[in-house]
Amino acid sequence: MAEPWYKNAVLYCLDVKTFADGNGDGIGDFIGLAAKLDYLAGLNVDCIWLQPFFPSPMRDNGYDITDYYSVDPRLGTLGDFVEFSRRAQENGMRVMIDLVVNHTSIDHPWFQAARSDAQSPYRDYYVWSDEKPADAAEGTVFPGVQDTTWTWDREAKAYYFHRFYDHQAELNITNPAVRREIERITGLWLQLGVTGFRIDALPFLIEFKGTPLEGQGDAHAYLRELRHHVQQLCGDACLMAEANLLPEEVPDYFGDGDKIHMSFNFWVNQHLFLALARKDATPIRRAYEQLPPIPVWCQWNNFIRSHDELDLGRLKKSELEEVFRAFGPDESMQLYGRGIRRRLAPMLGNDRRRLELAHSLMLTLPGTPVLRYGDEIGMGDDLSLPDRESVRTPMQWSDGANGGFSSAAADRLSLPPIAEGEYGYPTVNVEAQRRDPQSLLNWLERALRRRKECPEFGLGECTWIDTGRAEVLAHRCDLDGSTVYAVHNLGARRAKFMLPVGGSRTLQDVLAFHHCEAQEDGSYRIDLEPYGYRWLRSVATG
Ligand code: NOJ
Ligand code: CA
Questions:
Q1: Could you say which residues of the chain have pLDDT below 70?
Q2: Which residue, 9, 77, 322, 396, could crosslink 403 as a Cys pair with Cβ 3.0–4.6 Å?
Q3: Would you say the pTM of this structure is higher than 0.90?
């Protein structure tokens, strides 16, 4: 049977504003991005996920939208988008976009109409209350920055609900008119060539706990409706959830394989950082054991860092403190009491061995990997910028002016590129790494190519292997009678162990093409350097 494309693809997330400026006005745009498609195809990316590029006052980096049906004029026109999307397809890449319909900006014409007239059909697009609910201080997503979820609107003479900033009013999806809007929005972008959506803040979109809407209808059934709609319009459309789920919540989101297709694996992500901090693989193993199996056509998204803080809110307090100590010891590196606002390379001390290890885990653990722009060259962060902006600096293309991101005068850029120090663009940039065969960029390009030669990792069945060593994570993935193994040493010392493989098989090193020596009992002696890893294909002997 045909396999769904998204179960074995490599995704790459980027923000058009900070990727490449094509017209020299200091802001990244679709023309600039289109010119970089060869780069992305060359890196072996299958699908580009674009962060919001719609008109927006940009008070939450574009996650505060004022028009879902067009492109922010600073980033280009609809025509530029269509040209980009067509060229991406010509280069063999799909495009997914953010679907941010949990909330709109309060500048959106819908909210403006809703607040100015209680009789307006738009009033019921949002969630209102005449009284301030007693628990208004609870449930805010940005503690310490936003201290209430209900804000008084003088014009409306009522409180409106918002999980995020007070400029992001929650939409009411129990209103059929809002659902129709979402159908039109997804319909437009599917027609313009996208293959799917990353659904922003999915749990909040469908849950109204503590609001006057609580208990109205079966919120989860909406996911089936949305799935049906997108799939009718585009057979291979894919819904990818941003949902930081507890294991027990997972079944409700995947349903019987008839709700979302994929979901970011926040549970494993947080335990992966705990494992890296402890130099012990046990938290990863345990995290997977806690997760329920998901339907066969569904998939997890593996990621290391996103455009937000590294959210560690699901860990126990003592575990959170361990990760803080290892990767974000200074208070300036922490955010919302639960997260770290640093990029991967600085967190891992720019240690190439650990950077490869983290990427190798993302590529081989069961799921579809999602890379973030800049991580392929080991970009750093700028902690002098506020909140999550620290990890959103422009892509570093070269050692030229503005790191090759833009030809504008430096003071016209919306965010400054990192110019100095270990991670400054004179040192860390695409051009230099392309010239160096040993660079992280060239390593990753090769690793992605090899990953595609091993569809077992994306599509196969995963089994954990006990090696008797806590610092070693070993697993095998089986698909239609073929098998690959991955072994990772999270420890800072060499790890020697036996890998049970079974007789009459030889192991071939996928990344280095070494042959491994079999023992008489059908096991293999593996000797991993500190933070070492191997991908091994099992082939018949003889
Ligand atoms: C999740 C996004 O990843 C984050 O950047 C944003 O602030 C919130 N959703 C609100 O849209
Ligand atoms: Ca521009």
A1: 513-517, 542
A2: 396
A3: yes
